[in-house]
Amino acid sequence: MKIRKAVIPVAGLGTRFLPATKAIPKEMLTIVDRPTIQYIVEEVVASGIEQVILVTSAGKSAIENHFDYDFELDTVLQMKKKERMAEELNHISNLIDVVSVRQKKPLGLGHAIWSTRNVVGNEPFIVLLGDDLVLSEEPCCRQMLSLYDEVQESIVAVQRVPMDQTGNYGIVEGQPFTERTYKVERMVEKPAPGTTASDMAIIGRYILQPEIFSLLGETEPGYGGEIQLTDALLKLTEQRGMYAYEFEGTRFDAGDKLGYLKAIIAFGTRHPELGEEFKKYIKQVSADL
After folding, report:
1. 279 pLDDT exceeds 70?
2. For the segment 170-219, what is each residue's pLDDT rounded down to a tens digit?
3. Among 42, 106, 163, 213, which residue's Cβ finds the most Cβ atoms within 10 Å?
4. Is the peptide bond before 19 cis (omega within 30 degrees of 0)?
5. pTM
6. CATH class of 5-288
7. Residue 67 CB coordination number (10 Å)
8. Do the Cβ atoms of 228 and 109 come closer than 8 Å?
9. Tell me, what's the pLDDT at 223?
10. How far is 125 from 288, CA to CA, in rounded Å?
């Protein structure tokens, strides 16, 4: 079955970016000239997905508004002969069909995904975390969809991390299946040192079978009173196959201050209008340090 829908959870409070995120959703913080969430949605669009389901919470209306049409702003831009900017904003509002689901209580990523069950329905779907950016020639989402066409099972995207950092991630253990792909045997959430030999860390991209919804509904709250996605993934792995895919590209945790700054440099140096001047400035600043 073709994957048509993408779930993007954006209900988090963004506490790592306070005070900047006190009044602005973290997903609306800009990387060069567009908010982080737009890069995520553009990746989805470039991968052939037909619908985005945003999981929101109170105070997140700016995200929904960003992808909506603003008649008043469009009129002002047209009057001021700023056709190029008007076209850009209209392009954003017509990117893809966007639906919003409200997560009424902050009960974790697993609960956020479970909240979309009535919109997703009985079909596989892809999940992209709203602050995980991947810079790659072929969109990470499209890479995973190509693998799904072959295996027709759930997939988690992974990247290699230093062994002394595995305790910060969910870690996958498995056997090689094809190049860059592994058959999942075990998943460990933030393992203690010495408890796993794997360095494959799960990042914010998942393709999930619809059975995940019933498993999430049965999952008891774990650490922090939240429903952990990893717990349901473990159960899903026991029921049917699951694969880990070591994607091609560079991942940035834009929900982390240092990761956010790295993303600005990576995307800024590749910007078609500003890139070359930005590179010169970086060299100048580096020489003065």
Report:
1. yes
2. 899 999 998 899 999 988 888 888 888 899 999 999 999 999 999 999 88
3. 213
4. yes
5. 0.92
6. alpha beta
7. 19
8. yes
9. 65
10. 49
